[in-house]
C-alpha cells in the first residue's frame, strides 16, 4: 500500500511542492535573517547577560526580609526544642507509634501511611475544586462550606511551622523576590480597606476575597520540600484535569442544558457550552488554559513512547473541552499559552497552532459564528445595553465618584461580595453585576494605586517566571536535536508549562473575572509557587535525567 502511495501522482506532486517551498524558504530573506541572529546570538553579549541574569544569586537572601524570616525560623526552632522535651509531644509520639503498629496489618492503611501528611495536604490542594464542589453543593452544611478554606490554609501553615520547629525541614528558608511584591500588594490593599470604604465589614470581606488565596504561593513553595512532593502535586493536578476534560466532553456529547443567556440566538450551531464542576464555561475554559500545557510538557519530558502518546491524547482532550466551552476569552488565553510554550520549547508548535486555527475556522461553523458574532450589530447592541461595554463604562463612572487614586471601595463592585451585600440602590442606570474584566474590577475597587501595585506584582511574576525558566536548566537551549528527545527528563520544560499556563490565565482575565472563583486564584498562586520551586530550589541534575519518572 505504501508503494502505491509513493508512486502516485498526488504524492510526487506534493513532495515536489514541499521541497520547492522549503528551498524558497531557505533562500529567503526571513530565513537568512533568523539564521544570522541565531548564529550571532551564540557569541553575543546579550546571551552572556541573559544567562548571567538567569543564574545570578537571589538578592532577597541579603535583604531585611530574609533576616526577619531567619529570626522567625530561630524562634520556631527554640519553641520546637522546648516542645520536643514536653509531655504533650511524647504523648503525640506515642499515639503515632501505636497507630503505625496497628495499621501495619491493613494494606489500605499501610498504603495511606506511605504518603506523608505533607503530601496528603498537596493532594487536597490539587483537589481544591472537587472538595469545594462537594462541600458547597452536595453536603450543603453552611458552616463547613463557609469556613473550610480558611481552616485548610491554617492547617497547612501550622504543618509547615510544626515541621520547622522540630527541625524536620529547611523549606521555611525559601524566600523569593516575589514575596516582597505580594506582601506589598497585600499592604496596599489593607491600607485602602482601612481608609476608604464606609462599610468596614464589607471592605474586609472584599479584601479577604482579593488577597486570602495569594497565601497559597507562600504555602506551596514550602510544602513542596523535594521532587517527590512536586510529582505528587503535579500528577494530582493532571488527574483532576483529565476528569474535568472527560466530563466536559461527555456534557457536550449529551448536549447538557444551559441558560439561554449563555448563547445568542444569532450564533449558529452552538447547541451547548460545557462547564463540568466549575458551573461556568468561562472558568472551566480558564482552568483548561492553565493545565493543558502541563499535559503538553509531558510529551517532551517523558522518555516512554506510551507516556508521550498518553500525554498527547490528554492534551487533545483538554483542548477539545476548551473549544466546547465556547469561551472566547479562554481561546485567546490558550493561544497566548501555546505561543509562549512554543517559543521556549518547540517553535514547530507555532505552525501547528496556525494550521489548527485555520482548520477550525474553516470546518467548524459553530466556533466561526461564535467569533463573527463579535462583529455583528446584535453584539454591539447587547454589549451597550447589558454587556461588557456598559459594564466597563459604569465601572469607570463609579471609579471617579470617589478618589480615582483610592478607588470605589473593596467589596463594592463587580464581584460576589458586592452581589451579596448590595449597599447601593439599584436604578435604571445602575444594577449589580459580575465584572467581565478582573483588572478593571481591581482598578474600580482599589483605584489607580491598587491597580499599579497589582500590575507591578504581575510584572514581577512574569520576570521571575522567566528567570525560573533560565535557572531550571541553563544548558537546555544549547543541546542540539529534536526537542522531543533533548527535553527528556528535563524539569525546565515543566517550568515552562506552568509559566505558559499562568500567562494564558492572565490574558483571559482581560475578558473575565477569573479570580472571582476562589479555587482559580488558589490554583494560580499555588502553581506559581511550584514554578518558583522548580526554578530556584529544585536540585538540578544536568541536562538529561537518566531515569525520568515516565
Describe it for me?
There is one protein chain. The protein has 550 residues and is mostly helical. The protein folds into 2 domains: 59-188, no CATH class; 207-377 and 444-537, no CATH class. The chain is built from 26 helices and no strands. Helix 15 runs antiparallel to helix 16 (305-325) and helix 21 crosses helix 23 (438-472).
What structural class do you assign from the helix and strand content?
mainly alpha
Can you tell me the residue ranges where pLDDT is under 50 for at least 5 consecutive residues? 541-546
Rounded average pLDDT: 84
Label the overall shape.
Answer: globular
Reported for the largest beta sheet, the result is: none
- Could you spell the SSE succession in H and E letters? HHHHHHHHHHHHHHHHHHHHHHHHHH
Strand segment count: 0
Rg (CA only): 26 Å
What is the share of helical residues? Answer: over 70%
Give the strand content. Answer: under 5%
Number of domains: 2
Q: Could you give the distance between the termini?
A: 35 Å
Q: How many helical stretches?
A: 26
Amino acid at each position: 500500500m505504501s508503494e502505491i502511495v509513493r508512486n502516485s501522482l498526488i504524492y510526487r506532486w506534493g513532495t515536489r511542492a514541499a521541497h520547492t517551498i522549503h528551498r524558497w524558504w531557505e533562500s529567503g530573506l526571513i530565513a537568512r535573517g533568523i539564521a544570522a541572529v541565531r548564529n550571532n546570538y551564540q557569541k553575543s553579549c546579550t546571551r552572556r547577560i541573559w544567562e548571567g541574569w538567569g543564574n545570578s544569586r537571589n538578592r532577597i537572601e541579603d535583604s531585611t526580609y530574609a533576616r526577619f524570616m531567619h529570626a522567625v525560623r530561630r524562634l520556631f526552632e527554640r519553641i520546637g526544642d522546648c516542645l520536643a522535651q514536653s509531655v504533650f509531644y511524647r504523648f503525640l509520639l506515642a499515639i503515632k507509634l501505636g497507630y503505625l503498629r496497628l495499621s501495619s496489618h491493613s494494606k489500605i492503611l499501610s498504603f495511606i501511611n506511605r504518603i506523608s501528611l505533607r503530601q496528603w495536604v498537596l493532594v487536597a490542594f490539587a483537589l481544591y475544586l472537587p472538595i469545594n464542589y462537594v462541600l458547597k453543593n452536595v453536603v450543603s452544611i453552611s458552616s463547613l462550606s463557609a469556613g473550610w478554606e480558611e481552616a485548610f490554609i491554617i492547617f497547612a501553615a501550622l504543618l509547615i511551622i510544626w515541621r520547622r520547629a522540630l527541625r524536620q525541614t529547611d523549606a521555611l528558608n525559601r524566600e523569593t523576590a516575589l514575596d516582597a511584591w505580594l506582601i506589598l500588594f497585600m499592604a496596599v490593599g489593607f491600607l485602602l480597606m482601612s481608609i476608604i470604604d464606609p462599610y468596614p465589614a464589607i471592605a474586609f470581606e472584599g479584601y479577604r476575597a482579593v488577597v486570602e488565596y495569594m497565601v497559597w504561593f507562600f504555602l506551596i513553595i514550602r510544602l513542596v520540600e523535594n521532587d517527590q512532593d512536586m510529582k505528587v502535586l503535579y500528577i494530582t493536578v493532571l488527574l483532576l484535569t483529565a476528569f474535568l476534560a472527560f466530563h466536559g466532553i461527555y456534557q457536550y456529547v449529551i448536549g447538557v442544558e444551559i441558560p439561554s443567556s449563555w448563547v445568542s440566538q444569532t450564533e449558529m450551531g452552538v447547541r451547548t457550552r460545557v462547564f463540568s464542576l466549575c458551573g461556568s464555561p468561562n472558568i472551566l475554559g480558564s482552568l483548561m488554559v492553565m493545565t493543558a500545557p502541563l499535559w503538553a510538557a509531558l510529551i517532551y519530558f517523558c522518555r516512554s513512547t506510551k507516556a508521550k502518546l498518553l500525554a498527547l491524547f490528554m492534551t487533545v482532550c483538554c483542548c477539545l473541552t476548551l473549544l466546547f466551552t465556547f469561551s472566547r476569552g479562554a481561546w485567546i488565553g490558550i493561544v497566548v499559552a501555546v505561543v509562549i510554550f512554543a517559543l521556549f520549547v518547540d517553535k514547530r508548535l507555532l505552525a501547528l497552532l496556525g494550521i489548527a486555527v485555520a482548520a477550525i475556522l474553516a470546518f467548524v461553523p459553530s466556533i466561526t459564528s461564535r467569533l463573527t458574532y463579535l462583529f455583528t450589530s446584535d453584539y454591539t447592541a447587547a454589549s451597550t445595553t447589558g454587556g461588557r461595554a456598559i459594564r466597563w463604562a459604569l465601572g469607570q463612572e463609579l471609579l471617579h465618584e470617589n478618589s480615582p487614586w483610592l478607588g470605589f471601595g473593596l467589596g463594592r463592585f463587580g464581584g460576589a461580595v458586592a452581589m451579596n451585600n448590595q449597599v447601593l440602590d439599584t436604578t435604571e442606570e445602575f444594577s449589580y453585576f459580575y465584572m467581565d474584566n478582573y483588572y478593571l474590577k481591581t482598578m474600580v475597587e482599589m483605584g489607580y494605586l491598587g491597580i499599579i501595585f497589582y500590575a507591578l506584582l504581575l510584572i514581577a511574576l512574569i520576570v521571575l517566571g522567566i528567570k525560573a525558566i533560565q535557572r531550571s536548566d541553563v544548558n537546555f537551549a544549547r543541546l542540539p536535536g529534536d526537542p522531543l528527545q533533548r527535553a527528556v527528563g528535563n524539569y525546565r520544560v515543566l517550568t515552562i508549562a506552568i509559566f505558559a499556563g499562568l500567562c494564558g490565565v492572565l490574558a483571559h482575565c482581560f475578558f473575565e473575572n477569573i479570580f472571582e472563583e476562589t479555587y482559580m486564584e488558589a490554583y494560580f498562586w499555588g502553581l506559581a509557587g511550584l514554578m518558583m520551586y522548580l526554578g530556584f530550589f529544585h536540585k538540578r541534575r544536568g541536562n538529561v535525567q537518566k531515569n525520568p519518572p515516565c
